[in-house]
Design a protein that fits this description.
single chain; alpha+beta; seven-stranded mixed beta sheet; three-stranded antiparallel beta sheet; about 20% helix; globular
């Protein structure tokens, strides 16, 4: 076999392997972990990215977080924080099961040409039925016990029989005195699809 033939065969084999690499999907190394739901437990839980679903105007979207939804510790631009509302479950399949308690989430906007209304830094806000809302029956709670809490809190599930799938519904209920908005830390997340 001549040196030219050998060089052609090696070049052909190299090109074939290169084309296979482009044509076949990449396989993750066995130790690499895929993005998981934020209900991650174990020693590496704070180091992983995770996802949770959120409501935006009645539509569910997936939101991704770095570090298992750990609180944000950087400089907080207080004038541009988005609201990340934590509410009672809105369907039979809650967006977050048992971690740290069963609940759903609501945010105002998704990324698009929206004139700057979208932000990846959020103020977490618990939406709780007020005493007035519970006594009148206008706010139906789902009781949940946060970690380290003294007892259950009344997460708002519906107000006046309507779901709380939008920021507007939550803010209207707060203006009417039927819910209380309780700040609960700052976090970073990005909406990635529905």
């Amino acid at each position: 076999m001549s040196a030219v033939h050998r060089a052609v065969r090696i070049l052909t084999a190299t090109i074939a392997v290169g084309m296979l690499a482009l044509a076949l999907p990449a396989v993750a190394p066995p130790r690499a972990a895929a993005l998981t739901n934020c209900i991650v437990i174990g020693p590496d839980a704070p180091l992983r990215g995770c996802w949770e679903n959120v409501w935006v105007d009645g539509v569910e979207y997936r939101m991704t977080f770095f570090g298992g939804m750990k609180p944000f510790k950087g400089n907080v631009p207080t004038e541009n924080l988005g609201e990340f509302y934590v509410i009672g479950p809105q369907t039979d399949m809650p967006q977050s099961l048992d971690h740290p308690f069963t609940h759903d989430h609501v945010v105002a906007a998704i990324p698009r040409q929206n004139g700057g209304a979208y932000t990846p830094i959020y103020q977490g806000i618990l939406v709780l039925c007020s005493e007035q809302g519970i006594i009148s029956g206008q706010c139906v709670p789902t009781f949940a016990t946060p970690p380290g809490g003294d007892g259950p809190i009344p997460l708002a599930t519906t107000v006046n029989g309507e779901p709380l799938w939008s920021v507007e519904a939550i803010e209207a209920a707060a203006a009417a005195g039927l819910v209380i908005l309780f700040p609960a830390g700052v976090l970073v997340g990005a909406i990635s699809g529905n």
